[in-house]
Amino acid sequence: MTVVPAGPAWTDRRDRDLVLGLAPALVVLALLTVTPGVYLVLTSLTPLNLAVPGSEWDFSQPLGNYAGMFEDPRFVHSVGVQAQLSIASVVLQLLIGLGVALLLHPNTPIRQLARSWMLVPMVLPPIVVGITWLALFTVDISPIHRFLAWMGLPMPPLLTNPSTALWAIVFAGTWQHFPFTMLMALAALQMVPESPIEAARIDGANRWQIFRHVRLPFIAPTLAVAGLFVLIDSVKAFPLIFIMTDGGPGEVTEVTNFYVYRQAFTFSLWGYGSAIAVLMMAGVFALSWVIDRITTPNDGRWS
Amino acid sequence: MTTRRRHRFPHWRGDVATAALLLAVLFPFFYLIQLSFRPKEDIFAGGLLFTPTLEHYGALWHGNFPFSFVNSVVTAASATALALLFGVPAAYALSRASFRGSRRIGLWILVTRMAPPIAFTIPLFITFRFLGLHDTRTGLVIVYLTFSLALVIWMMKPFFDAVPRELEEAAAIDGCGTWTTFLTITLPLTAPGLAATAVICFIQSWNDFFFALILTRTQASTAPVAIVGFIQYAGWEWGRMAAAGTLVMMPVVVFSVLVRKYLVRGLAAGSVKG
User: Fold this and answer.
1) Nearest to A129 by CA among B31, B52, B15, B6
2) B7 and B129, same structural domain?
3) Which of A123, A159, A184, A192 would bridge A226 by S-S if both were Cys, CB 3.0 to 4.6 A apart?
4) The predicted structure's pLDDT at residue B232
């Protein structure tokens, strides 16, 4: 059989073949994401509680969960904790990631080596990051506490103190995730053309001025995308909090994600938990849409 | 030009700062490893020198940890294999397709990567209890597909985009069908990308804690969940925790050094925390 390529018949046949390749993945993806998503929205409209029979399809007060949310002080509190964690994570990770990227940007052997090894915290299993920092924040065995005590500056336990627990978690999280913003910043710095830098140098600009007026405007869009990624990831914060503080002391480190987990898996309030999860999904979707908008014109620039 | 710049800003100061920073960043990592070799009676003493011991690893070997470790290997490997099986043809189709809607599918895949795991967990937990999939490896593999399938498509599409279509057209003139061309021409050219994708996919499932915590109990519990068991024990099994942590992170560290060039693309897709 001879096939004549490039004709419309060939293109049609090819497109049909390609659809056959795409379809199984889309079916699986739809089953695994759209179905649970729809189910989540449905349960959020019911007072579902596995201990109460018949609550599953009780749609008598569809918006009850949503209305109750804002009168639930523990939920409102969790949003406040979430906001603190998210803002601190975005600011710290952007600043530290950019700072380290600027340090590692020049090509010297040791800096090339550092570019690979700095990635270690980012790929570690979150549970391992959690137990490591739990040990480092435990006064009995932590070399950090021991060293500070030896210096005459003993540090009180951070994780059991309500005013420091969240910041200890932010610190461990920043250690874990700064390599991501660092990588994005490094990739962007490498794309900055040499000629405007050289021109600025000839005009007598100092290093700060070159950074501020030449490099920063070039890499700002990438940093914005990196910041959005950090923001989205901070909404999913869970393992570090679970291991290091379990939401405590009291509820000071209980972010919204952790609160939903509690509502659903500790208190069995599935309907209410689903409603909060729906709102979280909506927020994450909106942020993803913004990322898509920013990155589409020159696709692949930051990946 | 470069020589003049070097002249202006001597780089040894930056090199010293880099070395110091690298040591500081890696300190917690090495701290955990040394803790796993510290004799029990020495853990609270904290001197720099100690006689390394394998007692914590031995204790793990005789407990339930190997069982959980095997669960981790089996579920992460199965999820990766299935994600590649479904995801690679889909990525190729999206790369070559001229039909409408492929951009929208791309956005859907991005959103899947971003969605908070808790949103999937609530409906899946209820469904799994109904279907008898709770606390089974099969159930966990299905859950891991929610993010690994999207990851494979996201990562493989640019590799296929980079293969020139002229090569495929030549094969098509010889009478090869779309998928024969794909298997004989395109896929071998993207082999390094495929390997990197497989590794990153494996790491993402391997690192999962959140899904395994909620959707397993005893039969299918994975290594990360087993570590939590040591925390809840009375008396803080620090040595055992550190040994288990070291075992869980070692494959990840080795793998990621192998594929570090591709890590950014995989992780830019919004790594699943949990």
Assistant:
1) B31
2) no
3) A184
4) 66
Residue type, A259: Y
Q: Supply the range of the domain harboring residue B15.
A: 2-36
Q: Please identify which residue in the block is written with the tokens 């509690």.
A: A262
In this structure, are B106 and B66 located in the same domain? Answer: yes
Q: Give a yes or no: residue B119 inside a domain.
A: yes
| C-alpha to C-alpha distance for B264 and A303, rounded to whole angstroms | 7
Nearest chain A residue to B267 by CA: give it: A180
Picking from A193, A173, A191, A197, the residue whose alpha carbon sits closest to that of residue A96 is A173
Specify if B244 maps to a domain: yes
| pLDDT tens profile A65-112 | 888 788 888 899 999 999 999 999 999 999 999 999 999 988 888 888
Beta-carbon contacts of residue A259 (< 8 Å; ≥ 6 apart):
A74, A75, A78, A247, A276
As a whole number of angstroms, the distance between CA A281 and CA A296 comes to 22
Q: What is the mean pLDDT of residues B147-152?
A: 88
Interchain contact, A37 vs B172, CB within 8 Å: no
Q: What ipTM is given for this predicted complex? A: 0.85
**Which one of B22, B28, B149 has the shortest CB-CB distance to A175?**
B28
Residue in A36, A44, A40 with CA at minimum distance from that of residue A61: A44
Q: How many CB pairs under 8 A join A and B?
A: 292
Spatial CA neighbour of A72 closest among A251, A303, A217:
A251
Q: Residue type at B145?
A: L
Distances (CA, A) of B58 to B5, B37, B41, B169, B218: 55, 11, 16, 59, 21
Give dist(CA B97, CA B89) in Å, integer. Answer: 12
On chain A, the residues whose CB falls within 8 A of the CB of B93 are 18-19, 21-22
B111 to chain A, closest Cα gap in Å: 6
Same domain, B63 and B177: yes
Q: Name B237's bridge partners.
A: none
Give the distance from residue B265's alpha carbon to the nearest chain A alpha carbon, in angstroms. Answer: 5
Say if pTM beats, i.e. exceeds, 0.90.
no
| Number of domains comprising chain B | 2
Banded pLDDT at A8 (limits 50, 70, 90): low
pLDDT digits (tens, 9 = 90+) for B99-115: 666 677 777 777 777 78
The one-character DSSP state at A71 is T
pLDDT of residue A6: 55
Binary contact (A175, B25; C-beta < 8 A): yes
Could you tell me which chain B residue has the CA closest to the CA of A135? B238
Segments making up each domain of chain A, as ranges = 1-36, 72-295
| pLDDT score of A169 | 94
* C-beta of residue A37 within 8 angstroms of C-beta of residue A29: no
| CATH 3.40.50.150 is held by the domain A72-295 | no
